[in-house]
Amino acid sequence: METVALHTRLREGREADYDRVHATIPVELDAALREAGVHSWRIWRSGRELFHLVEVDDYRAMRARLATHPANIPWQAQMAELLEVEDDYSGAEPDVRLVWELP
What we know:
Layout: E1 2-9, H1 15-22, H2 27-35, E2 38-46, E3 49-56, H3 59-66, H4 72-82
Antiparallel strand pairs: 1-3, 2-3
InterPro entries: Dimeric_a/b-barrel (IPR011008), Rham/fucose_mutarotase (IPR008000)
Protein name: L-rhamnose mutarotase
Pfam families: rhaM
């Protein structure tokens, strides 16, 4: 299993919208994430900055599977309205690298 950290940023003024939308994740999306190997996905927000911690069997495979999944497409369209940079699923590698950890 992989643990992946991600960073995204909200569009200015969309903080409350993001929190509201994430209060209830669609059942179909939940199932799609789990089927794609996601064990846990946690998101912290500080102002407009979002920090994700994902525990997944295979991050690259998960991204490939979700890119065209019918439950994920409308979710990503909704997220594109809220996020400063839309996720177009072109990248398979996370952009946050582990630098240090307390052993």
